[in-house]
Structure formats: structure tokens, C-alpha cells
Specification:
Elements lengths: L10 H18 L5 E6 L2 H13 L5 E6 L2 H10 L4 E7 L22 E5 L1 E2 L4 E2 L12 E5 L16 E5 L10 E6 L16 H6 L9 H16 L3 H20 L5 E2 L11 E6 L5 H10 L14 E4 L6 H18 L1
Parallel strand pairs: 2-3, 2-4, 4-7, 7-8
Antiparallel strand pairs: 1-9, 5-6, 8-9, 10-11, 11-12
Helix pairs in contact: 1-5, 2-3, 6-8
């Protein structure tokens, strides 16, 4: 019987979801103070679920906006709370992350929200802000760097992530939430967005994305077999380093706009000094079986996404191609 045929309430699937949760807890050292939920709807659904579960409509919440996803989360929260952008990188085209000491936080904010890694702009938090008030919880969208490196979960009230970058197929959304934050949802909260419902039912209130959860479980096993997230991070650092080195040593032929201190290990955006060559770059790379290198439509240029599953050999092939392309067109 395939996982796709199993009853989600049968003992066969229960063993799969329980093993997946156990392995994820081991990977991230998640304590019993936190619930781990396997949900649906992508991280975008959590943009609404978080304020609905944590706030009343009149509660203040703080957002640090370092890219498009943080901005979308802020806009959605405005429907269910009173969000305030305490810092935005928009004026500098989302190429930086602020000095946390300089932030003016609302001492009454229910939570402080960040997007840990911005896929479109290639900006990644290397450390995390501490909320001004100890009652203010830190909330992070970790969709695109989840399980790419170790994280101190105890610093956060909520971590949420769409699985599809590093840990499984699209359709699974993982929420790690401190248990004392569960059970305070606004009255208008839809049942499928209420963390209490999902926690009480062990993520089985309705039929979950069973096969996707099974796949995530296999990935968690593999990450543990690799030596855990400390070893995974080393591999990701090596991949990113050779790609950024290729860009930085190209004498301006290739350029990465992101401040070096916050460059993403997952998403590497770059442009060409001669923009008219960018279409040729993408086309020629595709001929070499390297695809999806075109940058997001909102920023242009190129973007190499080098998530956990991208092997070092793939990045080395791209770097070799970039040097050949520069030699031909430089």
C-alpha cells in the first residue's frame, strides 16, 4: 500500500508522522515546550494565522521588512492586528539587514516578525533580534532556509516554514510554536487556522498532506545521516562561498548587490555589467542543462538557488560556466 492510499488515522500513517516529528525535534533540538504542527496552505496562510492566534484586532505588532515576503506578511497582518514596520530595506532595494540596537521597537508589541531569508533579494539574517519586552515573542518565517543550518528554537515563540525549499514537496507547512501561545485565537479565526485545533488533534484534524509529510520524514532521516544541521550548514557555506567568490573575482562582470555580511546561503542574486547579455546567459546556461537561473521578475538579473538538495558539483558546474561566459563576452 502506498502512503497515498493509507488512512491518515491508521496506525501505519501515525508511525510515519510521529517519526517525522521526532526526527525534526532531534535535528533542531526542539524541547517539549513547543508543539510541532504539519499544516497546509503554505507560509502565506500563516501570514494571517499568526495574528489571528496571537493578537486581538487592536494589538500592536512589529515587523522588520527585509524583502518581498516580509512585506507581504506585514500587509496581511494589517487585517487582523495593528502592525508597524519598525524597519524596511525597501529604499535600498532590500540589500541590507538593520543593526538591531538602532531599532525603535514598540514595548507593547505582541510579537516581532522577521523573514529569516528572503528568496527574491538574497538577504539572510545571520543572527536574530531580541524583542525589547520579554513578553513580546519573536516570530520567524524560515521557509527558505529551514533546516539549512542549526537554529536556537528557544529564542522564538513561533517558527513557520513552507517545506518546499529544503525539506519536502510543496503542500506541507511546518509550524513550531511554544505551547503557552496556543489557545488564544480571535473568535473569527477559521477552524483550519486555529493552532489549538491542530495541536489537540496532532496535525490530523482533517486529512493532512500525507505523502508530503512522508517525504519530509525521509529528508529528516537523511539530514540526520549527514551528521545533522551543523554538517549541513558547512556544505551550504562551501557551496555559497565558491559562487560568491566567482562573482566577486569577476572584476565587475558579475555583481551581487547584497551587503556581504548578510548574503544568503540559499539564494544568490547577481547581475551582469552588460544587462543586454543576461538573456543570453540564461539561454546558454539552459543549453548546458542549468535551468531556473533567471532572476525574479520584480528584480531582474539572475538568481541561483542552492538549497540543501543542490550538490556541490552543481555549483561548481555553474561557476565553470560563468567563467567561460565571461571569457567569451567580457
Amino acid at each position: 500500500m502506498s502512503v497515498m492510499e493509507m488512512s491518515h488515522r491508521g496506525k501505519e500513517f501515525l508511525s510515519i508522522i510521529q517519526k517525522a516529528e521526532s526526527d525534526l525535534r532531534t535535528l533542531l533540538n526542539i524541547s517539549d515546550e513547543y508543539a510541532v504542527l504539519f499544516l497546509q496552505g503554505g507560509a502565506t496562510t500563516q501570514f494571517a494565522a499568526i495574528p489571528l492566534n496571537i493578537c486581538s484586532p487592536d494589538d500592536a505588532v512589529d515587523y522588520i521588512v527585509t524583502g518581498s515576503w516580509g512585506d507581504k506578511a506585514f500587509k496581511e497582518a494589517a487585517k487582523y492586528s495593528k502592525p508597524n514596520v519598525i524597519w524596511s530595506g525597501k529604499s535600498e532595494k532590500y540589500t541590507k539587514i538593520p543593526n538591531f540596537d538602532s531599532l525603535v521597537q514598540n514595548p507593547d508589541a505582541k510579537y516581532l516578525h522577521i523573514c529569516a531569508n528572503e528568496t527574491i533579494h538574497g538577504v539572510e539574517f545571520k543572527d536574530y533580534p531580541t524583542p525589547l519586552n520579554e513578553k513580546t515573542i519573536l516570530v520567524a518565517d524560515m521557509s527558505s532556509n529551514f533546516c539549512s543550518k542549526p537554529v536556537d528554537v528557544s529564542k522564538f515563540g513561533i517558527i513557520y516554514a513552507g517545506a518546499q525549499k529544503n525539506v519536502g514537496p510543496s503542500g506541507v507547512t511546518i509550524v513550531i510554536i511554544r505551547k503557552d501561545l496556543i489557545g488564544n485565537a480571535q473568535e473569527s479565526t477559521p477552524v483550519m487556522l486555529d493552532y489549538k485545533i491542530h495541536a489537540e488533534n496532532n496535525s490530523l484534524y482533517n486529512t493532512p498532506p500525507c505523502y508530503g509529510i512522508y517525504m519530509c520524514g525521509l529528508v529528516f532521516e537523511d539530514l540526520l545521516d549527514q551528521g545533522g544541521l551543523v554538517e549541513v550548514e558547512k556544505k551550504n557555506q562551501k557551496k555559497a562561498q565558491i559562487l560568491y567568490d566567482a562573482i566577486d573575482s569577476s572584476n565587475g562582470f558579475y555583481r551581487c548587490p547584497v551587503d556581504k555580511s548578510v548574503r544568503s546561503l540559499m539564494n544568490v542574486p547577481f547581475t551582469l555589467a552588460k544587462p543586454e547579455l543576461e538573456a543570453e546567459f540564461v539561454k546558454t546556461a539552459a543549453g548546458e542543462k542549468m535551468v531556473q537561473l533567471k532572476g525574479h521578475r520584480s528584480v531582474g538579473g539572475m538568481r541561483a538557488s542552492i538549497y540543501n538538495a543542490m550538490p556541490l558539483a552543481g555549483v561548481e558546474k555553474l561557476v565553470a560556466f560563468m567563467k567561460e561566459f565571461q571569457a567569451k563576452h567580457g
